């Protein structure tokens, strides 16, 4: 592969990956928007005390009033207001807190930037307040402490141990430090004077419930007891604050950022995750007991109205007027500030899109409708019909929000078409590289300069971009396909060839010409069907069973006696794999017996294999592998049934299994069969330790399929020759065609490779568990909350089967770098066609699981070819590298000699 083509591929794919965040996941934050104060005078409350019980489910809170007697007494005695708060997906801690304090559901690109030490870069209640104090988890508190008027206090992130039964102490830490803060203020006159000001916010983030929910599940006694801890702590803080200020000018609010599923995860849009409790009491709060469901983003204008500050400028919340106990005049001022804040966003976004050549007003609610609404609201206010003016705004607010969303997504269809053109032009260029004559080079000085026709097209497109004032990134999306097509034109003289071929077909109207056209037409239909199957598997993994059924026909592609001999076993294995896609995604429940049984079964099989006469000489290798798998099964048994939290020694062994799974096979005999056996069994060890259900059982059925495919590819050899085939480049290469045409065998290998990759990713549902996973999956490796370590382990779990596939195909391709590159190019064409389909299926609303899946589908398909190329090159090196005790001794002597040289 030419290095220029490889560099071009990396740059183009980087642009295509960036494009989804530029087109679908642009930030909803609108800059240069003026704010509108509610009042410069006295607000209903001088200070706000905000409690967020992270991970508290609404149904659990309602079903167990005995666990929260203080909060339920406020509801029963009508001392405040209670409602169900409907949070927004993704139901994660960062988006939830952004929705509460900033008023919008944070865009996915911002969530992807990380949770830790990443201050939120937008307007919120905290920077609108005069001064704020906050206590709690560093993952949340540090999001908002990037202003000089915000003071934060937090515990260490290492305390967030979901394997601990004392997670409630995280909440007790918060309550103790808040009480300590007010006690110490008595001896600090300067701080005490600051606390006597108005527009103050005190924020208490309570993580204990979320930690207990992850580790012990929401129906556990630990979770319920933690609710009691939170309730006692809130009552205690109220007493401390009322005793300190003694002016009845404090508003208290308790809610949650999200709920949690029964198996201890969150992120999706189920009622258990979305619905959270909302309790408010104190100054400015209605004493009505129970009210209707409110949206989580509506809390932002509610909190702003309580202390009289401006609504954060990017808020999409609508003031819940029924929750406020204020005068009609103040209620109108709050509603008007909310209306003007939404109007400012509308005007800024509309002004940006009005520069487009194809600009069209939003049909449902345009500029004239907005101006008419404002006129009517002000007219009602002049007539002192404040309640009617507030009600009119609340009724029309959904239309304003729809218009804002419309202008935010205005260019999506147009830019999506441009990206599709980028994909098609790039795929055409790769195919041109594979099928071109060896004497032709893709990237030279002559081919990179567009001819007159394409120069004119590129010039016209640049004028169009300047006229529409498009961002620079949009220029790349529009100009890239034209440039790539110009390269193809320069290499193949494609325009002339197409013209001559078309003229030939017209002049020689006969059956022969249509027969000539029929072959590529049927090929296109076959490609479309295959592409449809691959794409639909991403949508619904149950269609993977259809792929397994199609794979039963693979033996018919080979005419060797080995294929006939193993055909029945291959087909039975494919049929045995078909039920797995119908099983629930791994992560919702634990099945320790299957985790123990898989390595144990493989160990027993390896013990029995030497009974075959051909494998008798390899008995020693098989015994060692069997012993290693027996130890693995024992470790899983001990960790599952003897320890709730695995000891440090077991976690150390688990971590060591990762590097040793790659090192131990290097000491095995240097034959393809021995190396493949050692690598597969060694990699099976950490995979089993990362399993919690049927994943390792699936791999136990999938591994024979890989081994039989290897036998098919070497079907021309006898069994004895195959078993002794050396793992080196000493035998014939697979890429010997001087014409550089793509052979049918190359295409079938690429298709089977993609099929195996999809089977590895979706066979157990691991792909979905990346977005909503059970922390128990990683319990043998880690118990302390660490998002990036967890994500790394989950990625490794997915990559282990992919490495097994790569080791297999490295052997099939005879470790030949040119064959590996051609194979990767064919895989790239398939996966990029899939990625083009997934681009138009991306979602920027819905559950975190849905959003994450749509992004992951696109990213996995677009990165698969690069991953396959790198894994094949690594696998080729691993398979052909041999270590021995002699090598180790030699390395020790070299190191010892260097040490002596340094000492001398």
UniProtKB/TrEMBL annotation:
It is a multi-pass membrane protein. GO terms for biological process: GPI anchor biosynthetic process. Residues 404-847 form the GPI ethanolamine phosphate transferase 1 C-terminal domain. It is an enzyme of class 2 (transferase). Its main location: endoplasmic reticulum. Keywords: Endoplasmic reticulum, Glycoprotein, GPI-anchor biosynthesis, Membrane, Transferase, Transmembrane, Transmembrane helix. The keyword Heme does not apply. It is found in: Endoplasmic reticulum membrane. InterPro entries: Alkaline_phosphatase_core_sf, GPI_EtnP_transferase_1, GPI_EtnP_transferase_1_C, Phosphodiest/P_Trfase, PIGN_N. Pathway: Glycolipid biosynthesis; glycosylphosphatidylinositol-anchor biosynthesis. GO terms for molecular function: mannose-ethanolamine phosphotransferase activity. One of its GO terms (cellular component) is endoplasmic reticulum membrane. The chain crosses the membrane at residues 413-434, 454-472, 516-537, 543-559, 622-642, 649-667, 687-710, 747-768, 788-813, 825-842, 858-883. It comes from the Eukaryota. Signal peptide: none annotated. Its EC number is 2.-.-.-. Ethanolamine phosphate transferase involved in glycosylphosphatidylinositol-anchor biosynthesis. Transfers ethanolamine phosphate to the first alpha-1,4-linked mannose of the glycosylphosphatidylinositol precursor of GPI-anchor. Belongs to the PIGG/PIGN/PIGO family. PIGN subfamily. This is GPI ethanolamine phosphate transferase 1. It comes from Haemonchus contortus (Barber pole worm).
């Amino acid at each position: 592969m030419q290095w220029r083509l490889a560099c071009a591929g990396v740059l183009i794919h980087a642009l295509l990956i960036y494009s989804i965040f530029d087109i679908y996941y642009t930030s909803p934050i609108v800059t240069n928007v003026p704010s509108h104060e509610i009042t410069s005078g006295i607000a209903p409350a001088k200070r706000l005390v905000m409690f967020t019980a992270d991970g508290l489910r609404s149904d659990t809170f309602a079903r167990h009033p005995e666990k929260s007697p203080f909060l339920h007494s406020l509801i029963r005695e009508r001392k405040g207001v209670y409602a169900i708060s409907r949070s927004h997906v993704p139901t994660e801690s960062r988006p939830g807190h952004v929705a509460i304090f900033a008023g919008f559901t944070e865009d996915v690109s911002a969530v992807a930037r990380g949770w830790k030490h990443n201050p939120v870069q937008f307007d919120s209640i905290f920077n609108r307040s005069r001064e704020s104090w906050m206590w709690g988890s560093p993952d949340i508190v540090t999001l908002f402490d990037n202003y000089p008027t915000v003071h934060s206090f937090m515990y260490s992130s290492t305390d967030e141990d979901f394997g601990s039964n004392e997670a409630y102490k995280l909440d007790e830490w918060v309550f103790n430090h808040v009480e300590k803060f007010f006690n110490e203020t008595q001896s600090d006159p300067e701080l005490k004077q600051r606390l006597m000001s108005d527009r103050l916010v005190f924020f208490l983030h309570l993580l204990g419930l979320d930690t207990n929910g992850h580790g012990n599940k929401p129906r556990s006694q630990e979770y319920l007891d933690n609710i009691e801890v939170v309730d006692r702590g809130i009552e205690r803080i109220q007493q401390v604050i009322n005793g300190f200020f003694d002016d009845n000018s404090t508003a208290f609010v308790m809610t949650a950022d999200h709920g949690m599923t029964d198996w201890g995860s969150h992120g999706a849009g189920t009622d258990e995750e979305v619905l959270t409790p909302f309790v408010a009491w104190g100054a400015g709060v209605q004493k009505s007991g129970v009210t209707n469901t409110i949206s989580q983003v509506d809390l932002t204008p509610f909190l702003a109205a309580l202390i009289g500050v401006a609504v954060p400028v990017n808020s999409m919340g609508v003031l819940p007027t029924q929750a406020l106990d204020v005068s009609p005049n103040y209620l109108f001022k709050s509603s008007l500030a909310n209306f003007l804040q939404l109007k400012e966003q509308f005007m800024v976004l509309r002004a940006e899109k009005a520069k487009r050549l194809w600009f069209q007003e939003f049909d449902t609610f345009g500029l004239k409708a907005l101006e008419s609404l404002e006129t009517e609201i002000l007219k009602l206010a002049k007539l002192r019909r404040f309640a009617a003016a507030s009600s009119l705004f609340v009724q029309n607010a959904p239309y304003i929000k729809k218009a804002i969303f419309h202008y935010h997504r205005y260019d999506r269809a147009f830019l999506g078409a441009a990206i599709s053109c980028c994909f098609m032009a790039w795929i055409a260029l790769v195919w041109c590289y594979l099928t071109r004559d060896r004497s032709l080079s893709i990237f030279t000085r002559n081919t990179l300069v567009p001819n007159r026709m394409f120069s004119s097209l590129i010039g016209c497109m640049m004028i169009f971009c300047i006229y529409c004032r498009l961002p620079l990134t949009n220029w790349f999306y529009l100009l890239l396909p034209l440039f790539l097509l110009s390269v193809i034109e320069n290499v193949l003289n494609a325009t002339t060839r197409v013209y001559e071929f078309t003229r030939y077909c017209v002049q020689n109207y006969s059956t022969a010409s249509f027969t000539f056209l029929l072959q590529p037409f049927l090929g296109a239909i076959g490609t479309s069907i295959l592409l449809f199957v691959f794409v639909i598997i991403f949508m619904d993994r149950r269609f993977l069973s259809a792929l397994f059924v199609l794979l039963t026909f693979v033996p018919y592609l080979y005419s060797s006696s080995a294929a006939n001999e193993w055909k029945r076993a291959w087909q039975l294995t494919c049929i045995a794999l078909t039920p797995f896609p119908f099983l629930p995604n791994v992560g919702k429940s634990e099945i320790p017996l299957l985790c123990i049984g898989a390595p144990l079964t493989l160990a027993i099989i390896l013990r029995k294999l030497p009974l075959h006469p051909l494998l008798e000489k390899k008995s020693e290798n098989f015994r060692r592998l069997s012993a290693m798998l027996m130890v693995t099964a024992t470790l899983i048994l001990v960790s599952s049934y003897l320890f709730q939290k695995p000891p440090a020694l077991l976690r150390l062994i688990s971590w060591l299994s990762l590097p040793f799974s790659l090192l131990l096979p290097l000491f095995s005999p240097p034959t393809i069969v021995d190396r493949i056996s050692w690598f597969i069994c060694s990699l099976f060890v950490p995979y089993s330790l990362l399993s919690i259900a049927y994943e390792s059982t699936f791999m136990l059925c999938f591994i024979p399929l890989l081994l039989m495919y290897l036998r098919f590819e070497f079907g021309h050899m006898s069994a004895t020759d195959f078993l002794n085939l050396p793992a080196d480049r000493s035998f014939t290469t697979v890429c010997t065609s001087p014409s550089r045409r793509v052979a049918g065998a190359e295409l079938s290998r690429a298709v089977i490779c993609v099929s195996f990759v999809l089977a590895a990713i979706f066979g157990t549902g691991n792909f979905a568990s990346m977005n909503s996973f059970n922390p128990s999956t990683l319990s043998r490796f880690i118990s302390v909350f660490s998002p990036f370590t967890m994500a790394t382990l989950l990625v490794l779990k997915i990559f282990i089967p992919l490495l097994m596939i790569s080791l297999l195909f490295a052997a099939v391709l005879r470790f030949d770098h040119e064959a590996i590159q051609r194979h990767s190019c064919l895989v790239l064409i398939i996966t990029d066609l899939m990625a083009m389909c997934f681009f138009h299926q991306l979602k920027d609303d819905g559950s975190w699981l849905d959003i994450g899946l749509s992004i992951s589908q696109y990213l996995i398909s677009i990165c698969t070819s690069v991953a396959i190329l790198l894994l094949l090159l690594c696998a080729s090196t691993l398979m052909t590298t041999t270590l021995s005790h002699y090598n180790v001794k030699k390395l020790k002597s070299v190191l010892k000699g260097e040490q002596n040289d340094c000492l001398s």
